[in-house]
Predict the 3D structure of the following.
Amino acid sequence: MKEVPSFLNEVKVILYSKGKEKCKAVKCKNCLNIFFARIVDLNKKQGKGSYCSHSCVAKKTHTGRIRADWEKEKLSASKTKERNPNWKGDKVGWWGGHDRAQRWYKLEPCVKCKNKKTERHHLDGNFRNNDKENIQFLCRFHHMEIDGRLHKPKI
């Protein structure tokens, strides 16, 4: 653990936009870095002056500990798809079906021309069917061509 140097424990005067405020060197409860907190904030019950930044506050969970990456992945996987209480299944609308495809499948090059700017195409036309076999990656031109949205000029 980091020790607070004795000279930092003395009250310091730092300029703020509202004038002069008295500050004290404090250890962050999360990362143990030393930072200056306003004495006014240290006396409040809301926990102001306990953390050096908003990100340190955000890293703390309601249990008061930081979760490891594998724990976060395990928790997020436990609430996906059918295991989530808000899961709607096939009762989603057009946007819901397309949003799922965007979240589940990373973009790949176009299967016809290898263009890197692609879109996800549902082969059977059912936007709710997000099986891997039903998703095809196409550039905008080929996607519109297959869907019949590409108007060819009359000659």
Q: What stands out?
A: The helical segments are 39-42, 54-59, 69-78, 94-104, 140-147. The radius of gyration is 27 Å.
